[in-house]
Design a protein that fits this description.
With 288 residues, the protein is mainly alpha-helical. Helices cover 77% and strands 0% of the residues.
Length: 288
């Protein structure tokens, strides 16, 4: 069950990243984050009311608040890093956040077996290579590297925090709702500050473009929510290290989606990385 839910997480995160990437070509990135998360809040609020999940409120929800604060900050750092440095360097480095939940699991005594460790190492290498790292001729500003590593730590922290935010399914609904409300508040504050500094909240074409994109924005927000939920279940069902690595295969999904929909050609290093990631996954599943 751990492998199943973790792989579902990677699929959902990969599709959400692909959809978000397409939307940010037409709509400011902060607006995409805020609107997509606000739509997710509406859906999750209805689920919380329908299931009576609010009755499970407790101190563990502070983990969800923490995830809600860290998530937008990590995403903004990642977007800024992409603007400063080559995507072929920034994108693979961003996937290194998997180290955070793995470390948390190891500190908690969650030790995988020998073959599973081998699968984890192979899968991590595959994920990094699937981003198509530019090994030569790619000037990278120090600020871009620092921002990317900060974003990676943030992404990993969100995975670790959301896994601790609930112990039941209905409690998870409430935790995800709290996380998304916090996302909207933090993202909305950042958007307001950006506008005050002269940034744009609306794309060229105005509100009409945002309204036309609402279905896609809803998909991105809900896919991200669902991914957080499936990851939390995966981390609770089995070793956190395995759940974290399998969930972190999402760059492979994004790359394959770009290949299938946008007809983008995979570089040889990306194809090799995707193959290694799948091989590592197979080794983990075989040894589980």
């Amino acid at each position: 069950m751990t492998a199943l839910f973790a792989l579902a997480t990677s699929l959902l995160w990969g599709l959400a990243d692909f959809g978000g990437g397409l939307l940010t070509r037409r709509i400011p990135a902060l607006t995409v984050v805020v609107v997509s998360q606000a739509l997710a809040v509406l859906v999750l609020g209805s689920v919380v009311l329908a299931t009576g999940a609010w009755t499970e409120a407790g101190p563990q929800l502070w983990y969800a608040v923490g995830a809600g604060v860290v998530g937008p900050a990590a995403m903004l750092a990642f977007y800024k890093a992409l603007a400063l440095g080559p995507m072929g360097v920034v994108s693979p480095l961003g996937s290194l956040g998997v180290v955070v939940p793995i470390s948390v699991g190891l500190l908690a005594g969650d030790l995988p077996g020998l073959y599973q460790v081998g699968g984890i190492v192979v899968a991590i290498i595959g994920v990094v290579l699937a981003g198509g790292p530019e090994l030569r001729g790619a000037p990278v500003q120090r600020q871009a590297v620092l921002l990317t590593l900060g974003a990676a730590f943030g992404f990993g922290a969100v995975m670790a925090l959301i896994a601790e935010s609930a112990t039941t399914v209905t409690g998870l609904f409430l935790a995800l709702f709290v996380q998304r409300v916090t996302n909207v508040l933090v993202g909305g504050g950042a958007l307001y500050a950006s506008v005050r500094r002269g940034g744009r909240a609306l794309p060229e074409g105005g509100p009409r473009v945002v309204r036309a994109a609402l279905p896609a924005l809803a998909f991105v927000g809900l896919a991200d929510v669902a991914a957080n939920g499936t990851y939390a279940i995966a981390a609770q069902q089995g070793p956190v290290a395995l759940a974290a690595v399998l969930a972190s295969l999402y760059p492979v999904v994004t790359a394959l989606a770009a290949r299938g929909v946008l007809k983008e050609r995979l570089r040889a290093i990306q194809a090799a990385g995707a193959g290694l990631a799948l091989a590592g996954t197979a080794l983990i599943a075989w040894s589980a």
